[in-house]
């Protein structure tokens, strides 16, 4: 793994998991020191993160964690809903056995994570459930479109599930229901739950701060304990590729044409 990729994955995971706040000003120097690398890979990682919609780079000011507006959330969530529903229809039109196996595996990992309150593992399993829909659709264009906003939406959902109103428990039950309905061939019913599962975030923005006023002006800079932040979001050595929200696997176990990584993902 290159140093740029290392920095990209560590910062991305910290943003998605909530270790770094929306709108937070990021210190290139402090992050480099925490990761034990030079500033150049961190600077290159910032550019990749910008392409993924996870940071904003403001000239003469600095780099900030993305800070979505309610309208951004609405547009991203509706795009994701459309893409995942279409992926479900295409996957079910093919041999759905591999899809069912992946969904069951993701649910099993979510259940185990719930039992031990390991919410980082839960997040990865949740992500792999949804990514399986795209993988098994056999449509690389759906996958490429999905990856444009997948990590940003995952960051929003992590904050929603860790907030009030027991959304994590509701989300878990919905995953079980979707898998059960798909096995029964009730595609329309499964898609209805999927749509509600994704779009609920628009009715719940009041449960976590978006900080839309941040990310445009450099304020007083305090020393951030990035070592602690990155320890909370460890590198994913050994993790299966289909657990990664921004990078699809390069090959198909079922022989279908799978989505390939983009130029940025292959760095």
Strand order of the largest sheet: 1-3-2
Our count of helices gives 11
**What top-tier CATH class of the largest domain fits best?**
Mainly Alpha
Mean pLDDT: 82
Identify the quaternary structure here.
Answer: single chain
Proportion of helical residues: 55-70%
Shape by Cα distribution: elongated
Q: In the CATH hierarchy, what is the architecture of the largest domain at level 2?
A: Up-down Bundle
* Content-based structural category: mainly alpha
> CATH H level of the largest domain: which superfamily?
GntR ligand-binding domain-like
Beta-strand share of residues: under 5%
How many β strands by DSSP?
Answer: 3
Give helix and strand order, one letter per element, not per position: HEHHEEHHHHHHHH
Report how far apart the termini are.
9 Å
Largest sheet: 3 strands, antiparallel
Task: Report on the architecture of this protein.
A hairpin with a 3-residue loop joins strand 2 (55-58) and strand 3. Strands 1-3-2 form a three-stranded antiparallel sheet. The chain folds into two domains: 3-68 and 210-239, Winged helix-like DNA-binding domain superfamily/Winged helix DNA-binding domain (Arc Repressor Mutant, subunit A), CATH 1.10.10.10; 70-207, Up-down Bundle (Four Helix Bundle (Hemerythrin (Met), subunit A)). The protein contains eleven helices and three strands; from the N terminus they run αβααββαααααααα. The relative contact order is 0.18. By secondary structure, it is mostly helical.
Short description, anyone?
This protein is mainly alpha-helical and 267 residues long.
